[in-house]
Amino acid sequence: MSTADTQPQPTPAWSDGELAGNPHAHGDKPVKVRRMFAAIARSYDLNNRLHSFGRDVAWRRAAVRLAGVTPGEDVLDVACGTGDLTRAFCDTPARRVVGLDFTPEMLDIACHKCGVPRGLRSNEAPAARRGGPGPVSPEFLDGDATNLPFEDGSFDVVSIAFGIRNVGDTARALAEFRRVLRPGGRVVILEFDRPRNPLIAWANDVYTSKVMPWSATLISRDSSGAYRYLPKSIETFLTREQMAAALEKAGFSVMTQRPMTFGVCVCSVGVRA
Fold first, then answer.
1. What pLDDT digit, counting tens, does each position of 198-217 carry?
2. What are the structural domains, with CATH classification, of the chain?
3. CA dist list (Å): 102 to 2, 72, 110, 168, 247
């Protein structure tokens, strides 16, 4: 018997019983989500590309276009993960781009990919652009979407891609997004949804509930239950209509909700009233 066979296996973040119900109802959901993403951080980008058939790149680019960043604006990308959306915002005329996440293992990868250290810049004013009109360098720091470490009215755009359903309290996160936005600022939420065409919805359900969890778990060698949580978290989360209502309740005027790839995901854009 090998040493690997005798070592105890890590306890999964999600049990079968918890995933049989609504994972969003668990009080310790943030702890579970952090453990889950820490476990899959190294294979996260690979699984995203493979299981979205490369469409996740196009979805993020579309979200950046819908944000409509103009010269001199400041952008906060919440639940930035490994930094793909944060980096995409760096190609806009933004004055400052900040990526925030509460999983250190994900931020380590984001910083490595972008060649920047962790934390806010201390050697220059936050409003400074490096190299004039060229791409700005991103900043990455640890933080919680429900308790953002910024003063009121610090940003013109707040984005979150495939992360709003993972926060502990959606309403509180939306309230925080509004707080740190300047008047007229935009919130951009990219999140999975269920296609409206019955045939496409059936095929998507089979893929996300059967094929993807098996293959993604195999690739990542994950024992946290992350890829069993994913389809359940989508199934039990807000619909696009409920998201629009939540945004309005939080003090946003909904500008648009753009379905992408047959409605597999939806980009919602709201303006701070």
1. 999 999 999 999 999 899 89
2. 55-194+236-272 (3.40.50.150)
3. 36, 27, 12, 12, 23
